[in-house]
Specification:
This protein has three helices and six strands, in the order ββββαββαα. By secondary structure, the protein is an alpha+beta fold. The strands form three sheets. A two-stranded antiparallel sheet has the order 1-4. Strands 2-3 form a two-stranded antiparallel ribbon. It has a two-stranded antiparallel sheet with strand order 5-6.
Length: 231
């Protein structure tokens, strides 16, 4: 709808201004919104460049996320590196038969599902480490600090060879608070002087260990039979 303005006398801020009408046009019709405003080209260029930069940033971020995810998906073992001096090496799900870890500090190291037959952990500090479902047949864990270690489903037994048998050695080891649930087996292992304080064991496992339990742990001063709650 057109708006009618009389330009003979225009009042602006309480002041009167005399405006001469266009020739032969006492009245002037002006349509609202008839003026077409255009954004400056420079502004449009900047807006387009800004949109492109933002899009490019999100694209790079998305690509980086995909690359990171692909690295983990290529080899799941790369995502499970333990602590201690072997933190730079993957020790989970590996064949570490005969590996020498004696005297090492391996706190919370991840050895889940690894093959550790005849590996040497003598005197190693393994607090909170995980040997979940690991094969420790014939391994030497003597004098090791095994407090809070997860032995769930682990095989800590004697290994038989063509010429002899090698025991898993837990002599004088400290296993306080270690986990030994499921089918964990210590059958045939040397537990002389081992401290089993607060280690949850199946009744049949405890009965077997009590038959061979002997000695006193030199560090804690606890008798092995007492820590196993033998009768």
């Amino acid at each position: 709808m057109a708006m009618l303005y009389n330009f003979n006398n225009v009042s602006l801020y309480s002041k009167k201004f005399s405006v001469k009408n266009p020739s032969n046009s006492p009245l002037c019709f002006i349509k609202p919104h008839s003026l077409n405003y255009h954004k400056p080209k420079v502004f449009e260029d900047k807006l387009e460049k800004g949109s492109f930069s933002l899009s490019e940033t999100f694209s790079k971020a998305g690509l980086l996320a995909l690359v990171s995810a692909s690295i983990l998906l290529v080899d799941p073992a790369l995502a499970f590196k333990g602590g201690g001096p072997y933190g730079s090496e993957v020790t989970r799900g590996q064949d570490l038969t005969g590996k020498d870890f004696s005297g090492k500090t391996l706190i919370k190291q991840d050895f889940k599902t690894s093959i550790l037959r005849q590996a040497n952990f003598k005197g190693a500090k393994l607090l909170g480490a995980s040997f979940f479902d690991a094969d420790l047949t014939g391994a030497d864990l003597s004098e090791a600090d095994l407090r809070g270690v997860d032995f769930s489903l682990a095989n800590v037994t004697k290994i038989f060879t063509s010429f002899s048998s090698l025991q898993a050695n837990l002599s004088n080891a400290i296993l306080e608070g270690a986990l030994a649930t499921g089918n964990t087996s210590f059958k045939g292992s040397n537990i002389t002087g081992a401290d089993f304080t607060d280690v949850p064991l199946r009744d049949d496992q405890r009965e077997y260990l009590c038959k061979v339990a002997d000695g006193v742990n030199p560090i804690t001063g606890n008798a092995t039979r007492d820590t196993l709650l033998c009768n």
